[in-house]
């Protein structure tokens, strides 16, 4: 690659990203914006387009926080923006296709407005193939940075503003923890809180361990202080984030403190609702189940990806759990929390998946009775072990399996929601319904969307709603007036 094409140049290296050494995690502090970059965005606007998971959504809040410290203000208009950043997702090919489409489309704007800084960050930046393609085919991009160096944005933006060449800085390291990062949170009611970063599971299909580095946990003091601060600011709900939250604390060398301990401490904080995502069945221990069963602000919803119901496929996926282990875990969870809502992720059409093996996934779905499921067709990711396996299930078969799986889930979801008919549920009212401004919408503790007619002053508060029209994906209900719960958290 020609050095002149890019000024700052550390390109991604998947081999280096795969390494897991013994080195301790460093906890760095985000200090301040360098003198020369303060106020650089005064009177200017930024726009961040976020793709993918909640981790990315929250990273965008950090990026926004940094930009705002530099004086930039948010905008929804591309024409108004001086900085446009695409915070990208690499999990499946279609996610990447969308981003490349967007980069191509933004070329016109960049040509009309050369002073615009067009940048890409997030998981796609961590991929060698993607960065090479941008360097060769999309020279109108000004800046590429990765998931490990978000805190470097002020320096990188300065370079991008000064330089005519593309600025590329992507670190393929195991990763540090950076505390004290500013956050411009999108929502005043619900907040994301990182508890850990990275993943060491290396499921054979998954790019995340390469793009996000090794598993590393934030110190409990930092997590708890952040949640207490959010509670003081009036937030009603937090979602604890990690690629594999159940591995929380495994990396601490100076203490025995795991995810169950963290949840037990979070339970004592005065914030009405606490969620977490995502769980891996392998590290889900009995202590955590006991803590979750205490309920209070710990809601009865667990997202528990299974990926497949067949042991042979689970083995090829290197999932490190069997069907039996998973079902036993589900049994224990349901015993401890009888009203728990379980949701999952499933991949169909894995290399070599037979009809019988797929049938095992259907039967597991029937057995567990998830309230909902995210279902995906397997998508080979360059650099992962599965990408070297023969992707031998024809696309039509994959699509047909996905269709059958979705029909079954629909049937179960409908049945589950039907069971709520006539029940009164607690709803955190988020705002007006997207389709009809006369209707309010919010979520139950189990994260189900509820639409109901009610006064606008309920927005931001808890309301009791009687479900009178359950549907497959949403619930319609009637507000139960004069309920003491209106006051919860206010
Ligand atoms: N192809 C299809 N689905 C994938 N997922 C992760 N990697 C792939 C892939 N290569 C799914 C898994 C995971 C969810 C976030 O995305 O189901 O749990
Ligand atoms: Fe990917 Fe598996 Fe890690 Fe989840 S647990 S992020 S699927 S490697």
- Based on Cα principal axes, name the global outline: globular
Specify the structural class.
Answer: alpha/beta
Q: From the alpha carbons, calculate the radius of gyration and give it in angstroms.
A: 23 Å
Side by side, the strands of the main sheet go 1-8-7-6-5-3-4
The ligands bound in this entry are: 5'-deoxyadenosine, iron/sulfur cluster
Parts with pLDDT < 50 across at least 5 consecutive residues: 486-490
Mean pLDDT: 94
- Number of structurally distinct domains: 3
Which strand-content bin applies to the residues? 15-25%
> Considering the protein shown, what is the CATH homologous superfamily of the largest domain?
tm_1862 like domain
First-residue to last-residue Cα separation: 58 Å
Largest sheet, in brief, is: 7 strands, parallel
- CATH hierarchy: architecture of the largest domain: Alpha-Beta Horseshoe
Quickly count the helices: 13
> Which CATH top level class of the largest domain fits?
Alpha Beta
Portion of residues within helices: 25-40%
Number of strands: 22
CATH fold field value of the largest domain: pyruvate-formate lyase- activating enzyme
């Amino acid at each position: 690659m020609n050095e002149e094409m890019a000024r700052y140049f550390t390109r991604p290296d998947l081999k280096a990203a795969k390494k897991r050494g013994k080195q301790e995690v460093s906890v760095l502090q985000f200090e301040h914006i360098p003198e020369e970059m303060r106020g650089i965005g005064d009177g200017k606007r930024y726009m961040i387009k976020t793709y993918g998971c909640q981790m990315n959504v929250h990273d965008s809040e950090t990026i926004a926080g940094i930009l705002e410290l530099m004086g930039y203000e948010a905008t929804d208009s591309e024409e108004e923006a001086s900085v446009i950043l695409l915070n990208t997702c690499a999990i499946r090919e279609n996610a990447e296709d969308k981003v490349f489409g967007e980069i191509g489309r933004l070329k016109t704007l960049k040509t009309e407005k050369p002073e615009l800084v067009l940048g890409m960050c997030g998981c796609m930046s961590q991929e060698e193939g993607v960065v090479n393609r941008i360097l060769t085919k999309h020279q109108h991009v000004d800046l590429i940075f990765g998931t490990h160096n978000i805190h470097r944005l002020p320096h990188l933006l300065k370079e991008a503003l000064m330089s005519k060449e593309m600025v590329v800085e992507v670190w393929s390291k195991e990763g540090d923890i950076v505390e004290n990062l500013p956050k411009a949170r999108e929502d005043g009611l619900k907040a994301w809180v990182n508890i850990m970063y990275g993943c060491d599971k290396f499921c054979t299909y998954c790019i995340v361990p390469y793009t996000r580095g090794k598993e590393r946990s934030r110190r409990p003091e930092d997590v708890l202080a952040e949640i207490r601060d959010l509670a003081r600011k009036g937030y009603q709900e937090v979602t604890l984030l990690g690629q594999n939250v159940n591995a929380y604390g495994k990396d601490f060398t100076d203490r025995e403190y795991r995810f169950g301990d963290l949840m037990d401490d979070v339970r004592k904080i005065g914030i009405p609702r606490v969620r977490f995502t995502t769980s891996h069945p392998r590290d889900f221990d009995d202590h955590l189940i006991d803590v979750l069963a205490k309920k209070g602000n710990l809601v009865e919803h667990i997202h528990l990806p299974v990926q497949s119901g067949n042991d042979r496929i689970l083995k090829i996926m290197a999932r490190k759990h069997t069907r039996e282990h998973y079902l036993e875990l589900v049994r224990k969870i349901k015993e401890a929390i009888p009203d728990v809502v379980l949701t999952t992720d499933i991949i169909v059409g894995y290399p070599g998946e037979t009809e019988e093996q797929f049938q095992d996934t259907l039967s597991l779905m029937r057995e567990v009775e998830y309230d909902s499921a995210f279902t995906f067709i397997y998508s080979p990711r360059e650099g992962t072990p599965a990408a070297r396996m023969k992707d031998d299930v024809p696309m039509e078969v994959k699509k047909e399996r996905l269709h059958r799986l979705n029909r079954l889930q629909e049937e179960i979801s409908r049945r589950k929601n039907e069971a709520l008919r006539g029940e009164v549920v607690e709803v955190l009212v988020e705002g007006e319904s997207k389709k009809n401004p006369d209707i309010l919408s919010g979520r139950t503790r189990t994260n189900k969307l509820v639409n109901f007619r009610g006064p606008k002053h309920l927005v931001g508060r808890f309301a009791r709603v009687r479900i009178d029209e359950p549907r497959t994906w949403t619930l319609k209900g009637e507000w139960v007036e004069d309920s003491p719960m209106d006051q919860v958290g206010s």
